[in-house]
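Progress against Task 2.4 (sequence-to-structure conversion) is shown through the following example record, which the project officer requested during the mid-term review.
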Amino acid sequence: MPFKTPSKTSEYIRSLLPEELDKDVLGIMKYAEEKVIPILLPETAAFLRQTVMLKRPEKILEIGTAIGYSGMIMLKNSAAQLYTVEKDEDSATVAKKFFTDAGFKHRVTVFIGDACEIVPLIKGSYDFIFLDGPKTRYPVFYPYLKDLLSGGGILLADNVLFNGMVDGSGEYQRKKATIVEGLDKYLKTVFDDKDMISSILPVGDGLCMSIKKG
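Structure tokens generated for the chain above:
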């Protein structure tokens, strides 16, 4: 996902998420800055927070835990149980510590492993899904995520415009062709799906919100 200069990110996010800046959120932000780890763009974080507050989900599925920043936002703005998937074991370990220190240990289940292997095995029904994993795999994940999404549930996918390469507003880089093709296929798939109501939102690096009918 795109990365802003840490200091600018901190300053901007303070203006967007004033109530969220408690020790737990600040702890993750500080860790990300020190380790130069990308976290959600500030405007994306703000939108995610607002969407979760409005939806009030009971069960959330997240693809792409990273160090737990997006998960922390969702946990702090809902009473939901969070099920989150992360391939990198070190990142997952850091995220689990942040969740535990914030008192969310019993509300979070972290699946460590390749989402391509884990997602097809996930069972149950989720009323909110946040997709922020490997971009080339979005269209592969979609059929599984659709089945897991409850009627009226929200599937929110991040980075769908990928620095403007998907919609042509940014400079195209041939080395990123596989990612762009994957995201383009994902968007075409969700917009062609008659069971879903989808919109592309010019927030951050582009969000695609899909609501399942029913």
